[in-house]
Write a structure and sequence with these properties.
Blueprint (H helix, E strand, L loop, with lengths): L1 H14 L1 H29 L11 E10 L3 E5 L4 H10 L3 E10 L2 E4 L9 E4 L6 E4 L3 H4 L4 E3 L2 H4 L5 E5 H8 L2 H4 L3 E4 L3 E9 L12 E4 H6 L17 E7 L5 H8 L4 H7 L4 E8 H4 L15 H30 L3 H9 L4 H30 L19 H27 L3 H5 L2 H4 L5 H34 L9 E5 L4 H5 L1 H9 L4 E7 L10 E2 L1 E3 L10 E5 L4 H5 L3 E4 L10 E5 H7 L11 E4 L3 E9 L14 E4 L7 E6 L4 H15 L8 E2 H7 L2 H35 L1 H9 L4 H35 L10 H27 L3 H7 L1
Length: 810
Amino acid sequence: MFFNNLKIALRSLRKNKIYTFITLFGLAVGVAASLLIFRMLKYELSFNESFEKYERIVRVVNIESRPEEGEIYHVCTPLPAMDIMEDRVSQFEAMSRVKEFWPALTVPDPNGGPPLKKFTIQDHETAFFVEPEFFDIFDVEWLEGQALAALSDPSSIVLNRSWAEKMFDSPEEAVGQLLVLNNAVTVTVRGVVEDLPTNSDFPIPFFVSWQTLLANADHFFLDNRWGSCSSNNQVYALLNSADQVEAANAVLAEVGQEHYSQQTSNRERWHILQPLSTLHFDERIGHSGTHQISRSRLQILAIIGILIIIMACFNFINLATAQASLRAREVGVRKTLGSSRRQLVGQFMSEIGLIVFFAVFLGVNLANFLLPFLKYISDVPETLPFLSDPTVWIYLAVVIVLVTLLAGLYPSLVMAGFRPVQALKKEVSRRTFSGATLRKSLVILQFIIAQGLIVSAVIVLSQLNYIQSKDLGFAKDLVYTFNLGTDSASLARQQPLKQELLRLPNVEAVSFCSDFPLSNNTWAQNFRYASRAEEETYPITNKFGDADYQKTHGIRLLAGRWYDPSDTIRQGVVNMTLLRKLGITDPNEVVGQQVFLGGRRPVDITGVMEDFHTYSLHSEHRPLLMTTQKIFHWGVGVKIRPENIPATLASIQEIYDRILPEQILDGRFMDERIDQYYEDEARLSTTCKGFGLLAILISCLGLFGLAAHAAQQKVKEIGIRKVLGASVSSIINLLSKEFILLVTFAFLIATPVAWYLMNEWLADFAYSIDIQWWMFAFAGFGAITIAFLTVSFQSIKAALADPVESLRNE
């Protein structure tokens, strides 16, 4: 019976070529799209799960509550607090202090010459100072050495496999070799570990012992005060049991309270635990490793994947129910010859199952072909197994079963339910078919989804254009940026480097700084203004730059002047946001006044600058003090002219290599750095555009098939109308108007839904576009035009047919 049904199914599919092609291609596109989204979701949701004790691993973070700002989450722990936590939190089975840093690492020349090899950490990487207990928390495979022996002593480093191989060819050769951190601290390789998985938030190329940090505290800016809370200083711990988070939080809430309450009276501060399971998704806190992705974006991806596959099923249902009336006589004959309803359902389900199987086969190959393009909307590594991944085949098996049931069960039951007498008399085709309302509803739903995605793409793209064109308050074009070492030798060579760079004919200005105008770095502290007795209820953010920072980055002054050259904090320039929060309207009023950092350290205000964006447009302007502190000047900005840029960059490279031969120039233009802050938005735009177009394609395939069915159903009517003098345009209107009305109705429903959802998305930006009417009109007009062209093809074909032939056939 099975093979007989299969043979009949193949014959039926060959007979209805248009129906077969549309359903097969539509389903294949839907399967390919959902498979790619499944790959992204599986990768993102698997982050950090490779660690054996994943459910018990936590990170300590702290919360600050301020009257004006509410609760703010920080990923930092003061060093004295770490000591108390180790003693008091009994729920910790193991605990490790951690400090993130981004050093250069060189292989020294035994003869004292330039380094034999030199490497720098990339943007997505971060190195860790750790205690040996770190490896009791995070299980790694040791290729050489052991944690306790390797990381108990000063001047010890553990490399991962990749760095051991590129520095010394093999893990075995690496052990015992000398390396230099930041051209200042010599360390010995005591072990090599396997690379951590790509789906972890710890892309760590090497680990350095905590004792090395303590022995070089000044070089690595280690501050042991309660008031110092650097985001680089963190604590990871392993709980005795995964259900002890609340109990540990109760203990942590008391840690340091006597010290925090003495520092300021206008804020509260306490520590809590962040489970490792939330690290990849909690954007309130962040981390310095790989990218983060919010759960809401994953939900959007999942919804898009489900909607795409459902739209393909809608096409199946629409076309199958439309075809039902054409197969009524076949059903009547089969029932007259004794076929049961169960047998007929089996036959029709066989046809549908066959189409689904072929569609999945094509969809898998299409997805495999499109894999290289996945990098534009996701961070999924191209090297990650695809077809060899068992979960992919489990997913495909589930898709085959669900799609066959979803797309085939209703049409099969409808066709098998025809009464033989009515079917043979062709009364089914003359009556209003029960699936007509369903088909209209599904067409509307398809175009609601498609137009919603297109509107979303338009709004996201408009926001990205707004970001790119917005005046950020500083010069972002033609400013070439790179970093220097923080050792004393590098600091001593800053002025020779600057002088050499300024001699280049196409270099306008050079400045050194702690960070560039727009960055994620936060140097914030309490302060008191002028003669006011109390500290303000909000912090002031610091940026450190030399006297040429304004000229290099195009910062605009509103009053006073820029500060004088200095190696330490003496003078500073404040922004207008600070004045507004202080209740001062005249910028000249604050020139000559002082701010007291930490309530005590005086800084003379020499000028007031216009606000510039120090963070992405997701954040509002914050009170800012620009001042100078040479020991923090590890960034370099070079303002260049537009003439002969490649030659200028080559000259900068030559000067850098000559003055700093042991360091690596990793330069980028400022606008490239800015683009990195909006990668998620760019990917969301690409996602909406790509899948929006797929949704339109799938919807139009369905319309094409339904239009062909409608034309076939009205062959005699069209013939009579043409004999009676009907024009081609009137016949096109006859066949097209119903579908255009459906698409228009879908647009009316999609508009308020898309407006609400995108309004919520834009609310995440402190600075955003206003949603305009033309964005919806563009999507609606585009969808209606595409739908009209799709339907018109069949309508014109029917209108141009010879009426004599159609009437003769009838």
